[in-house]
Write a structure and sequence with these properties.
The protein contains 6 helices and 8 strands, in the order E-E-H-H-H-H-H-E-E-E-H-E-E-E. With 187 residues, it is α+β, with helices and mostly antiparallel strands. The strands form 3 sheets. It has a 4-stranded antiparallel sheet, with helices on one face. A two-stranded antiparallel sheet has the order 1-2. The protein has a two-stranded antiparallel ribbon with strand order 3-4.
Protein backbone atom coordinates (compact mmCIF):
# COMPACT_ATOMS: atom_id res chain seq x y z
CA UNK A 1 0.00 0.00 0.00
CA UNK A 2 1.48 3.33 -1.06
CA UNK A 3 0.48 6.67 0.43
CA UNK A 4 1.38 10.06 -0.99
CA UNK A 5 1.93 13.18 1.02
CA UNK A 6 2.38 16.63 -0.45
CA UNK A 7 2.89 16.99 -4.18
CA UNK A 8 2.12 14.07 -6.40
CA UNK A 9 5.77 13.67 -7.49
CA UNK A 10 7.03 13.16 -3.93
CA UNK A 11 6.70 9.91 -2.04
CA UNK A 12 7.29 10.64 1.64
CA UNK A 13 6.08 7.58 3.53
CA UNK A 14 4.73 4.27 2.60
CA UNK A 15 4.07 0.96 4.18
CA UNK A 16 5.47 -1.96 2.29
CA UNK A 17 3.61 -5.20 1.77
CA UNK A 18 5.17 -6.70 4.91
CA UNK A 19 4.03 -3.91 7.16
CA UNK A 20 7.43 -2.18 7.56
CA UNK A 21 7.68 1.57 7.37
CA UNK A 22 9.95 2.94 4.62
CA UNK A 23 10.95 6.60 4.58
CA UNK A 24 12.65 7.44 1.28
CA UNK A 25 11.52 10.49 -0.64
CA UNK A 26 11.66 10.97 -4.37
CA UNK A 27 14.64 13.35 -3.94
CA UNK A 28 16.53 10.63 -2.10
CA UNK A 29 15.72 8.21 -4.89
CA UNK A 30 17.12 10.64 -7.49
CA UNK A 31 20.24 11.20 -5.37
CA UNK A 32 20.81 7.47 -5.03
CA UNK A 33 20.49 6.99 -8.80
CA UNK A 34 22.95 9.82 -9.41
CA UNK A 35 25.42 8.31 -6.94
CA UNK A 36 25.23 4.97 -8.71
CA UNK A 37 25.96 6.70 -12.00
CA UNK A 38 29.05 8.34 -10.45
CA UNK A 39 30.63 5.09 -9.15
CA UNK A 40 32.73 4.38 -12.28
CA UNK A 41 34.15 7.90 -12.21
CA UNK A 42 34.96 7.67 -8.51
CA UNK A 43 36.69 4.32 -9.00
CA UNK A 44 38.79 5.66 -11.89
CA UNK A 45 39.73 8.75 -9.87
CA UNK A 46 40.78 6.64 -6.87
CA UNK A 47 42.86 4.31 -9.04
CA UNK A 48 44.72 7.23 -10.61
CA UNK A 49 45.21 8.93 -7.25
CA UNK A 50 46.51 5.80 -5.57
CA UNK A 51 48.74 4.84 -8.48
CA UNK A 52 50.59 8.14 -8.30
CA UNK A 53 50.89 8.01 -4.52
CA UNK A 54 54.16 6.12 -4.10
CA UNK A 55 55.94 9.24 -2.75
CA UNK A 56 59.25 8.38 -4.43
CA UNK A 57 59.26 4.66 -3.62
CA UNK A 58 59.61 3.64 -7.27
CA UNK A 59 62.58 6.00 -7.68
CA UNK A 60 64.33 4.36 -4.74
CA UNK A 61 63.66 0.84 -6.02
CA UNK A 62 64.90 1.79 -9.50
CA UNK A 63 68.07 3.30 -8.02
CA UNK A 64 68.66 0.12 -6.01
CA UNK A 65 68.17 -1.94 -9.20
CA UNK A 66 70.65 0.27 -11.10
CA UNK A 67 73.18 -0.16 -8.30
CA UNK A 68 72.69 -3.94 -8.19
CA UNK A 69 73.10 -4.06 -11.97
CA UNK A 70 76.38 -2.11 -11.76
CA UNK A 71 77.65 -4.43 -9.00
CA UNK A 72 76.69 -7.63 -10.86
CA UNK A 73 78.28 -6.37 -14.10
CA UNK A 74 81.34 -5.26 -12.06
CA UNK A 75 81.04 -1.77 -13.59
CA UNK A 76 83.21 0.10 -11.08
CA UNK A 77 82.51 3.55 -12.55
CA UNK A 78 78.74 3.25 -12.38
CA UNK A 79 78.87 1.49 -9.02
CA UNK A 80 81.17 4.08 -7.43
CA UNK A 81 79.03 6.97 -8.72
CA UNK A 82 76.08 5.55 -6.76
CA UNK A 83 77.92 4.98 -3.46
CA UNK A 84 77.09 7.61 -0.85
CA UNK A 85 79.29 6.80 2.17
CA UNK A 86 83.00 6.45 2.91
CA UNK A 87 82.58 3.10 4.65
CA UNK A 88 80.76 1.54 1.66
CA UNK A 89 83.41 2.92 -0.72
CA UNK A 90 86.05 1.30 1.50
CA UNK A 91 84.24 -2.07 1.26
CA UNK A 92 84.54 -2.05 -2.52
CA UNK A 93 88.21 -1.04 -2.33
CA UNK A 94 88.89 -4.45 -0.75
CA UNK A 95 88.78 -7.05 -3.59
CA UNK A 96 87.62 -9.87 -1.28
CA UNK A 97 84.71 -7.90 0.15
CA UNK A 98 83.82 -6.63 -3.35
CA UNK A 99 83.80 -10.23 -4.60
CA UNK A 100 81.43 -11.22 -1.77
CA UNK A 101 79.09 -8.33 -2.66
CA UNK A 102 79.15 -9.33 -6.34
CA UNK A 103 78.22 -12.92 -5.46
CA UNK A 104 75.48 -11.79 -3.11
CA UNK A 105 74.01 -9.36 -5.66
CA UNK A 106 73.99 -12.14 -8.27
CA UNK A 107 71.84 -14.20 -5.91
CA UNK A 108 69.16 -11.48 -5.63
CA UNK A 109 69.39 -9.60 -8.97
CA UNK A 110 68.47 -10.96 -12.40
CA UNK A 111 70.97 -9.45 -14.83
CA UNK A 112 69.03 -10.56 -17.94
CA UNK A 113 65.66 -9.09 -16.91
CA UNK A 114 67.27 -6.13 -15.11
CA UNK A 115 65.21 -6.56 -11.95
CA UNK A 116 65.33 -8.31 -8.61
CA UNK A 117 64.43 -12.01 -8.55
CA UNK A 118 61.86 -11.47 -5.81
CA UNK A 119 59.74 -8.65 -4.45
CA UNK A 120 61.13 -5.31 -3.41
CA UNK A 121 59.52 -2.44 -1.58
CA UNK A 122 60.67 0.94 -0.37
CA UNK A 123 60.13 2.39 3.08
CA UNK A 124 60.04 6.11 2.28
CA UNK A 125 59.24 7.03 5.87
CA UNK A 126 62.50 5.59 7.23
CA UNK A 127 64.56 8.53 8.50
CA UNK A 128 68.26 7.70 8.29
CA UNK A 129 69.59 11.26 8.48
CA UNK A 130 70.92 10.91 12.02
CA UNK A 131 72.79 7.67 11.24
CA UNK A 132 74.26 9.07 8.00
CA UNK A 133 75.50 12.41 9.37
CA UNK A 134 79.28 12.60 9.16
CA UNK A 135 79.68 9.51 7.01
CA UNK A 136 78.68 10.77 3.58
CA UNK A 137 81.16 11.32 0.76
CA UNK A 138 79.53 14.61 -0.28
CA UNK A 139 78.94 17.35 2.27
CA UNK A 140 75.60 18.45 0.79
CA UNK A 141 72.39 18.61 2.77
CA UNK A 142 70.37 15.40 2.95
CA UNK A 143 67.07 15.85 1.10
CA UNK A 144 65.50 12.41 1.59
CA UNK A 145 66.35 9.00 2.95
CA UNK A 146 64.71 5.63 2.78
CA UNK A 147 65.29 1.93 2.76
CA UNK A 148 64.60 -0.58 -0.01
CA UNK A 149 63.92 -4.11 1.18
CA UNK A 150 64.57 -6.89 -1.32
CA UNK A 151 63.25 -10.25 -0.24
CA UNK A 152 65.73 -13.06 -0.74
CA UNK A 153 64.69 -15.65 -3.34
CA UNK A 154 66.32 -18.33 -1.16
CA UNK A 155 64.09 -19.76 1.56
CA UNK A 156 65.26 -18.96 5.09
CA UNK A 157 67.73 -16.27 4.01
CA UNK A 158 67.35 -12.72 5.30
CA UNK A 159 66.29 -9.86 3.06
CA UNK A 160 68.72 -7.32 1.63
CA UNK A 161 68.24 -3.75 2.87
CA UNK A 162 69.50 -0.95 0.62
CA UNK A 163 70.02 2.21 2.69
CA UNK A 164 69.13 4.99 0.26
CA UNK A 165 70.01 8.69 0.48
CA UNK A 166 69.33 11.68 -1.75
CA UNK A 167 71.34 14.83 -1.21
CA UNK A 168 70.54 18.21 -2.71
CA UNK A 169 71.90 18.40 -6.24
CA UNK A 170 72.62 14.64 -6.41
CA UNK A 171 70.74 11.56 -7.53
CA UNK A 172 69.65 8.70 -5.28
CA UNK A 173 72.66 6.84 -3.90
CA UNK A 174 73.24 3.76 -1.77
CA UNK A 175 74.71 4.34 1.69
CA UNK A 176 75.18 0.61 2.39
CA UNK A 177 73.49 -2.75 1.87
CA UNK A 178 72.86 -4.96 4.89
CA UNK A 179 71.59 -8.49 5.21
CA UNK A 180 68.61 -8.11 7.51
CA UNK A 181 67.97 -5.04 9.60
CA UNK A 182 71.25 -4.00 11.14
CA UNK A 183 72.72 -0.97 12.84
CA UNK A 184 75.64 0.65 11.03
CA UNK A 185 78.08 3.23 12.36
CA UNK A 186 79.01 5.48 9.42
CA UNK A 187 81.36 7.75 11.37
Amino acid sequence: MLKRKGRSSEYRWWISGRGTLCVPSFELYKLRRMAHAMYPYVVIFLCVALASCDRGASEQVQAAERFADAVVRNDAGARDSMIATRIFKKYFANPYVASDYIGWMRSIYDIHNKKFFSTSRADVDRDLKEELQGGLLNDGEIEETGMVRVKSPNEGEQSAFFWMVKQKGHHWAVAIITKGEAAVNFR
